[in-house]
Amino acid sequence: MRPTEIEAIRQQLPGWLEASLPCVSRGKVAAYIPELSKAPHAALGITLLNTMGESATAGDCGLRFTMQSISKVFTLILALMDNGEDAVFSKVGMEPTGDNFNSMLKLELVRPGIPFNPMINAGAITVSSLIHGDSPSEKSDRILQFLQELSGNAGLEYDLGVYRSESETGNLNRSIAFFLKENGVLSGNVEEVLEVYFRHCSIAVNCADLARMALVLACSGTDPLTGNTLIPRRYVQIARTFMTTCGMYNASGEFAIQVGLPAKSGVSGGILTFVPGRYGIGVLGPALNDKGNSYAGVHLLQTISREMNWSIF
Ligand code: GLU
Fold it and tell me: Average pLDDT, stretch 226-236?
């Protein structure tokens, strides 16, 4: 009998991962958040999960790491669910920047001075300010609960070591937030908005958690394993589009050509991606390339996508 697709992937995956491992030595672990520099440089892991709940895993897929910018996809979705499209897009744009994720450059140069998109820090900080709740902890806990629901893992928690490390050293994000406040983009107390932002960046996951969240996006907002609709289809469509146009920093165009799947990466070395209607995928590889994406993680996804002919383009 011919193996099913997931069986075939299970057989090939260790070899594909092995072939990506040499990339690890070319990358660097992010150190600008001091706590992140402790991540295992040589780690590489992946989990793929299909709509039947069958998974294929390889490498260090059980390691815990913080979501960092991957959380921006889900705070955007929650802000859309809380406020609707018009309110959110009056505060943040829809275009890629071509600048670094933490750049302030265009806020001053281009009118109106709203962040270009919700995947860069200025945009994500603005989105954090739109999450409903009476206090920073209520807002943060709503984000955490949303991610617990999406991952099917009620045990997801903040990594408080990473949270404090970023909160103590995040001067650039602080500057961005004060600039946005000055321009009238951000309302509310700046430190409280930053608390919400740093907290959701510090939510700790493993590759299986990312794969399950990604599977919900792959299935247009409905968790195929429970049948529950967790996100309106339209907001998944918006999130998927941002992932495609600006989810992989300034390498989003290259990723679209080489891998061809919507994806979001974070400076911890995580990547969340999916094959529409079919697979949710979580990857970890803390050694980053010069664009800030996991060196080996991108290489591995490129191999799998080519072998399986998964590009959506
Ligand atoms: N918390 C990180 C920061 O604001 C997230 C960056 C990222 O993963 O791109 O710098």
Answer: 98
